[in-house]
């Protein structure tokens, strides 16, 4: 496992930010913001995509108990359709940052673009969730919170098997959309089915 960096600038109080669910056809996009405690170490922090579900959940509880501050926020499918998914991802990050109670002076953002948050300095980090512990922690929170939400939603809308695909464009998910049509949790601005398949929205 690659060793992730504890910070980008040692003299700053940094907030790591990441999102989950950008490429999904259904459900909200979630984002998390995390301020690590430099006194608390966990060598297992890593990009959430590289971890098993069990390990993500274990680390979720560790993060919640051991960081200085964290917050999770989401934007609904309707808001995604209104703002587009890229902007919605940034706005979800803003909502998460809004909830932080500890003062900070730098933002580490996973990816290569961001909408500035007030006057705070921000640094876009390509593959940041595999490079910096704070972004990795944010990726774990965003992913676990979103997965749990989609599992709950799957109980109400069982046709789409969201407890397995979590809203991502799997073959089974698209077959279910074709058979049952989209529901209120689908993103209408997304291409829900291949272009050769007509769908009445």
Describe the structure.
By secondary structure, the protein is α/β, with parallel strands linked by helices. The chain has 6 helices and 5 strands; from the N terminus they run ββαβααββααα. A hairpin with an 8-residue loop joins β1 (14-20) and β2 (29-35).
Order of strands, main sheet, comes to 3-2-1-4-5
Architecture, according to CATH? Answer: 2-Layer Sandwich
CATH domain class name: Alpha Beta
Q: What letter string, H or E per element, gives the SSE order?
A: EEHEHHEEHHH
Rg, Cα atoms, Å = 17 Å
Taking the alpha carbons of the first and last residues, their distance comes to 45 Å
What is the global morphology?
A: globular
Strand content: 15-25%
Main sheet characteristics = 5 strands, mixed
Q: What is the helix tally?
A: 6
Structural class by secondary-structure content: alpha/beta
Q: Please, how many domains?
A: 1
> How much helicity do the residues have?
25-40%
* Low-pLDDT residue spans: none
Kindly report the CATH topology.
Nucleotidyltransferase, domain 5
Query: If you average the pLDDT, what whole number results?
Result: 95
Query: How many extended strands?
Result: 5
CATH superfamily: Ribonuclease H-like superfamily/Ribonuclease H
């Amino acid at each position: 496992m690659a060793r992730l960096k504890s910070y980008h600038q040692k003299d700053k109080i940094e907030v790591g930010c990441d999102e989950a669910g950008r490429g999904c056809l259904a459900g909200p996009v979630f984002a998390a913001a995390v301020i690590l405690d430099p006194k608390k170490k966990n060598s297992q922090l890593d990009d959430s995509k590289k971890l098993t579900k069990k390990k993500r959940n274990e680390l979720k509880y560790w993060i919640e108990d051991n960081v200085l501050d964290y917050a999770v926020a989401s934007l609904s499918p309707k808001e995604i359709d209104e703002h587009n998914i890229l902007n919605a991802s940034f706005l979800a990050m803003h909502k998460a940052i809004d909830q932080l109670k500890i003062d900070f002076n730098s933002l580490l953002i996973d990816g290569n673009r961001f909408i500035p948050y007030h006057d705070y300095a921000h640094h876009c980090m390509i593959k940041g969730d595999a490079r910096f512990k704070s972004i990795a922690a944010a990726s774990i929170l965003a992913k676990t919170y979103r997965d749990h939400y989609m599992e709950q939603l799957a109980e109400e809308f069982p046709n789409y098997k969201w407890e397995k695909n979590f809203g991502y464009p799997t073959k089974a998910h698209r077959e279910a959309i074709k058979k049952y049509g989209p529901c209120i949790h689908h993103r209408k601005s997304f291409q829900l089915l291949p272009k050769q398949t007509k769908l009445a929205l």
